Amino acid sequence: MAAARRWRPRDTSSSGHHDAAIHALHAADAAMDRQEVEGCGICDSDLEAFRETASHLAQAVAAAPPAHLKAAVFTKLAQNRRGPHRLWRIFFGPHPIQPAGDSESPMSPPDAEQ
Amino acid sequence: MRNSETMPDVNPIRPKRSGLQAVPATPPSTRDLLERAGRGDEQAFSALYDDVAPMVFGVIKRVIRDQALSEEVTQEVFVEVWKLAPRYDAAKGSPHAWVSTIAHRRAVDRVRSEQSRKNREQADVDTKVHTGPDVGDEVVADMVEQLDRVRVREALAALSEAQREAIELAYYGGRTYREVAVLLGIAEGTVKTRIRDGLIKVRDHMEVTR
After folding, report:
1. What average pLDDT does the segment B173-197 reach?
2. Is the Cα torsion angle A84, B44, B142, B71 positive or negative in sign?
3. What is the DSSP letter of B21?
């Protein structure tokens, strides 16, 4: 990760570039002109780097979700199964990776255990 | 020489290539799981959930501060992750950064749509800005993750009080930098500078201690 160690964001105070740190931390700020940020190589690379740092902030507060939540997630997915493999089938035919049989599919709600 | 007819296939997803020996199965990386989920692999998505759910639920709960609502938003995030997984581009960042961005964005959106700002502001009054993230009883007891958490907390503790306050309010508090400026009674440019410099410090700390 030598490249990552050399990373330094540009000084955006007078360069006309966007403040990538602000975009990385807050969705509402990012939504204002995300298109412009993503169209600028400098802002884009800074944004990626700051997002990696922001993900550390998320991981710092990791908390075990309730055991029943996984079952709820997969129940919700099963209710509106419009997963990527379905889209793939629509556009390209059978997907090379077929999900397991229904009985083993995680889309069938698992037991409430984790 | 192994007999390929009898050896178990250690990775049914990966195409078989002649001449390769089976190697002991190693846990797939989060990136691998996300990419496989993007190709419709539900088993991989299940493993991905196990991998990132604590981070997703933790950050959502920290932003929203409501258990039931946090569970609901966590469900929405994973549905979104499943749908968007085909668009994940590894060149654009790590899976954790990608997923946590979705989770954080959803949490902030929900807080705003619920118009619970008044309640949260009251909670802010009651809750002094911490020197580090809360780590409660529910924190997953995984050694590697624990070490990462410790390092982030160290990194946050190494920030100036002003930098830490700005980052906490913007990220965990879900505030825009303009709102942070109003709350702290300082110029918007100052908030930007504090957040930017603080994040650079956090990043440097994480890399030095890696």
Report:
1. 90
2. positive
3. P
CA atoms within 13 A on the CB side of A102: 2
Q: Residues 183..202 of B with a Cβ closer than 8 Å to A: which?
A: 189, 192-193, 195-196, 199-200, 202
Residues of B in contact with A50 (CB under 8 A): 199, 203
Quickly tell me which residue has 């911490």 as its tokens.
B130
Q: How far apart are CA B149 and CA B130, in angstroms?
A: 15
Residue B122: is its pLDDT beyond 90?
Answer: no
CA atoms of B72 and A69, how far apart (whole Å) = 9
- Take residue B196 and report the two structure tokens written for it: 């930017």
CB atoms within 10 A of CB A44: 16
CA distance B135 to chain A (A): 6
Q: Give me the interface pTM, i.e. the ipTM.
A: 0.71
Minimal Cα–Cα distance from B3 to chain A, Å?
A: 25
Residue B174 token pair: 């879900």
